[in-house]
Structures are given as structure tokens and as C-alpha cells.
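User: I want to check something. If I give you two sequences, will you return the structure for each one separately, not as a complex?

Assistant: Yes, each is folded on its own. Here is the first sequence with its structure:
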Amino acid sequence: MPDAHPSDPALALYHTLENVQWQRSFDARSLTRGQGYARQGRVRHGTRPEQEGEMLVLRAQVDGSGRSRYLTSLAVDPHNPPMGVVSDCSCPVGRQCKHAVAVIQSFIDELEANGSKRPGITAGA
């Protein structure tokens, strides 16, 4: 796969999430609940996407039920789309959870709200 990703990790992550069809990495319940968490503003930003070797990584804290706050990390490899999204969370589920969906959806929504939408990418993915 040619390296068509911008040097900005945020733009590269945005493109890569679309290319790997990130929603396929999560079950329907996690998608629905995680997108709800994103709409409710439960994702606490504080880290920007980073390039770590071949991987694009995003970390954030997500407010869970009650007073719980979970540290959620996710990674994608732009050169290996079949890998999809790999996530890790401090919640009881541990991986591929609603908190990771919330982080991704918030990241995408924030980029698009700030006018960072690129040609050829549709909103609401």
C-alpha cells in the first residue's frame, strides 16, 4: 500500500480509520453505546494522535457509569488494514469496548467540526 497519508498524525489517523472501516472492529452494542457516550461528551481529551513506529495511536479518558473513568488506548496500522482497530481499556471489558468507540467517534466528530474534513470522505461514518 502506498504511503498516501499526511505527515500530520491526526489526518493520518482519520484517513486510516476510514480505510480500515473502523466500525467493523466492534460489536453492534458497543458501537451504539459508545456513540452515545461520544454524544454525551464523556470523552476527556488531553492527548493527540501519535505515530508510534508503524502504528497510529490515540489515547483518552472516558467517563463511564457512576464515578468511573477509564483510560482507553487504540491503535491502527495504516499499512495493514485487515488488522482493523486494536483497543485496550481499563474498564472490565478490557478490549474493543464502548469506551474505544466513544474515543474514535469523538475524535472524528472533533476533526469534522473544526473543518478538517477532507475531500472523498463522508461525514457520519
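And separately, the second sequence with its own structure:
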Amino acid sequence: MLKKILLFSVLALLVLSASSNAQMRMSPSGRAKQLAEQLSLNADQTKKVEVIFTNSQNKTEQIMGKDGFGNGENRDKMMKIREDTNNEVMKILNDKQKSEFKKIIEEQRKRMEERSQNRMN
């Protein structure tokens, strides 16, 4: 049981770290543009997504600027920001876009798990 908890914690840390690093490389406007292309967002949706991503990045930078990512409390905060961001994006999508966005999130999660597994080997 303890091994599973430890493994999950390490996995969560790696997933969040990798996704955070990848997202930080792309600006909020770049991320919004990419999502607009993936989900066929209209101009209003794209603007709203950019605002959501900007707010998310600002929150992330505040956490990273304080103590870095090293402790569990910051990891939990980062995971919460990511979850909140995804939920905010979901609110502005239509049903078809929501379905596609869920697939994108799941694909990202799988890629992160694969990277995590590769790092452990």
C-alpha cells in the first residue's frame, strides 16, 4: 500500500512537472491558438481561453517564484491550478468541443505516464 502511494506521488510529480514545463514553454496566446485549432474554437472562445491560460500561468509563476516546485504542498497547488484551468475551459466549450477536450486531456495524461515509466526504467 505504501509503495502504491509513493509510486502515485512520484508519478503525479513527474506528470505535473513535465506538463508544467511544456506549457510554460508556450505562451498563453500560443496555447490558446493551439487549442483553437484542435477544437475549432470561435474568436470569442479563443479570447476567453487565452485569459484562462494567462491567469493560470500567473498563478503558477507565483507558486514557482516562492519556493520552487520542490515540496508536496506546491505540487498539490499546481495540480489544483491545472484542474481548475481545465474546468474553466470546459465551461466555455460546446458539447462536441468538451468531448474532444476530454480526449486531449486523457492523451496528455497517457503521454506523461509513458514518460514517467521511461524515466523509471
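Because they were folded independently, the notes below concern the second chain alone. The radius of gyration is 15 Å. The CA atoms of residues 59 and 93 lie 23 Å apart.
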